[in-house]
Design goal:
The structure is a single chain. Helix content is 18%, strand content 26%. It folds into 2 domains: 36 residues, no CATH class; 40 residues, no CATH class. It has a two-stranded antiparallel ribbon. It has a two-stranded antiparallel ribbon with strand order 3-4. A two-stranded antiparallel sheet has the order 5-6. By secondary structure, the chain is α+β, with helices and mostly antiparallel strands. The longest helix has 8 residues.
């Protein structure tokens, strides 16, 4: 068993995620998302899907990017 680094739960089904050379241990995807998912620069929501990236910032959608002055992005092709 391993202890979740977000909530502290010691759970027999915990799992680890290695990203950018760092090892993280979680007891749920919810905790992993809280720790690892980027935050939209405009609205602050956790970006769980693809999101969009522009000017070294991550946004949850093209609408939020446009609100920050980014041009040329669309939510659909």
């Amino acid at each position: 068993m391993a202890q979740c680094e977000v909530c502290g739960n010691d759970y027999y089904l915990s799992f680890e995620v290695i990203t950018q050379g760092n090892r993280h241990v979680f007891d749920s995807f919810e905790c992993a998302i809280q720790k690892l998912a980027p935050v939209c620069e405009h609205c602050g929501v956790r970006v769980v899907g693809h999101g969009v990236e522009a000017n070294n910032a991550i946004y949850c959608c093209a609408h939020c990017a446009r609100q920050e002055g980014v041009e040329g992005l669309a939510d659909r092709a």
